[in-house]
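WARN no homologs supplied; continuing
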Amino acid sequence: MRGSLALRTVLKGIPPILSPELLSVLARMGHGDELVLADANFPSASVAKNSILLRADGHQALPMLRAILQLLPLDQYVPTPAFIMRKEPSDRDLPVPIVGQFQALVSGAHGIQVQLEEIERMQFYERAKTAFAVVATGETALYANIILKKGVIPPSS
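OK structure emitted
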């Protein structure tokens, strides 16, 4: 690669926001593996010490989630395949519109209404430490973190 050109994906049907490294991670994940999509405030580097950290600086969470959900099947064998961070009690009156947008994207990708499971902040961090990978975005909205559990793709008929 010459100069400062960054690697990017130029393939039909692949959202260009997804880097070759992220595509590789998505392909290597197995059924039940989890992927964290993290906002700019999330402690991504320390949480991903024992997993894969992918930087998506400059990208917002919603376009990244939309693109990931085009390729990643969600686990249909669990009550919910997606988890969000519960607001801290001191933030109870803080509007967090991105959660509703996450809800709509996940439900649309799953084909049915999916209730995102809320996890207390410290439990969310602990669960994130066991994820296959963490994608650190440049999203500045608060509580813009979501964990996705990979499902399966059934054989073709």
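Residues 1-5 have pLDDT under 50 and may be disordered.
OK
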